[in-house]
């Protein structure tokens, strides 16, 4: 079988509405012919110095490609006719099975069986003998239908528990610092950065031996010593340098109007500020407290 014979088969198949009779081993014979052409091309390529430019190698390559294209065209045209023939046979109509190759005969038998099975099922659905919704259920070995198990449902992520805040250790006090300044409810918070000031305000230093200041209630402030624990008075913090010292920072005397807590002034000193305390603070810190209505000046 060569390319000319295959071209004749193709032309005949195109002209006829029915399948032309082909040998049972038609496709096997074509496959052997193509393999023979490939062997000839391989031998010719090995015998020449430049196989890519050799005319005989190019001729064999063209014949191989043409043969494959022609036989594929023959198969596609015959399959279309084969499907129509199988539909006739499934409907118990006469169908000529002569002239089919072995590969086409296997396809024909499979198509007839599938068409008959599908046709019977559709008729049962139309007659109400089979529920159309059960179509697609996997059959069991006993011929019964069983639901196809669905995939496992995704596990829902457990709801995250509310974080439990650790209880403070009664024996451990938090380290003093600006972050521990309490923030009263409903009032504007006073941050440590605000109380530190920007250092842009400078005034003349207050004399080291400045006298104490007395508020309206007669509480005395301005001394560096802490009040004794048994006098019952509110703790007051001195903002003045020790006698004989001068830190060169401008200061102002204030009455604290709400609890602020511990802060570190621009003079690197710690101040524990509570309501009604009278203190002398660096001007930068004093101005920040007054602006946020956490203190009032006594000057």
UniProtKB/TrEMBL annotation:
User: For bias kind Basic and acidic residues, which ranges apply?
Assistant: 7-19
Q: Which InterPro entries does this one have?
A: Gins51_C
| Name of the protein described by the UniProt record | Gins51 C-terminal domain-containing protein
Q: Where is the composition biased (Acidic residues)?
A: 154-168, 228-245
Specify where the region named Disordered lies, as residue ranges. Answer: 1-25, 127-254
Q: Which domain of life is it from?
A: Archaea
Protein's organism: Halalkalicoccus tibetensis
What's a Pfam family this protein contains? Gins51_C
Family matches, as CDD domains: GINS_A_archaea (cd11714)
**Start and end of every Gins51 C-terminal domain?**
254-298
Q: Where is the composition biased (Low complexity)?
A: 208-224
């Amino acid at each position: 079988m060569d390319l000319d014979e295959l071209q004749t088969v193709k032309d005949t198949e195109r002209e006829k509405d029915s399948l032309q009779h082909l040998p049972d081993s038609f496709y096997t014979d074509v496959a052997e012919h193509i393999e023979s052409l490939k062997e000839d091309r391989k031998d010719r390529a090995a015998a020449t110095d430049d196989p890519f430019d050799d005319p005989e190698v190019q001729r064999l390559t063209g014949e191989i490609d043409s043969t494959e294209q022609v036989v594929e065209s023959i198969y596609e045209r015959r399959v279309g006719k084969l499907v129509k023939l199988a539909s006739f046979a499934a409907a118990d109509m006469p169908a000529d099975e002569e002239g089919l190759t072995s590969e086409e005969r296997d396809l024909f038998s499979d198509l007839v069986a599938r068409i008959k099975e599908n046709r019977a099922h559709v008729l049962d659905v139309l007659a109400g003998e089979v529920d159309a919704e059960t179509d697609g259920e996997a059959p069991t070995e006993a011929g019964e239908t069983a639901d196809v198990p669905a995939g496992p449902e995704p596990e829902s992520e457990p709801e995250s528990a509310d974080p439990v805040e650790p209880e403070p250790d009664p024996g451990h006090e938090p380290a003093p610092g600006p972050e521990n300044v309490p923030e009263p409810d409903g009032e504007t918070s006073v941050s440590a950065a605000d109380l530190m000031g920007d250092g842009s305000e400078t005034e003349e230093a207050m004399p080291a031996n400045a006298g104490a200041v007395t508020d309206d209630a007669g509480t005395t402030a301005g001394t560096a010593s802490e009040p004794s624990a048994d006098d019952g008075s509110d703790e007051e913090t001195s903002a003045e340098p020790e006698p004989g010292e001068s830190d060169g920072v401008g200061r102002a005397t204030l009455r604290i109007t709400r609890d602020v807590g511990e802060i570190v002034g621009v003079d690197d000193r710690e101040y524990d500020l509570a309501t009604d305390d009278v203190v002398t603070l660096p001007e930068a810190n004093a101005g920040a407290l007054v602006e946020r209505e956490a203190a009032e000046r006594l000057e």
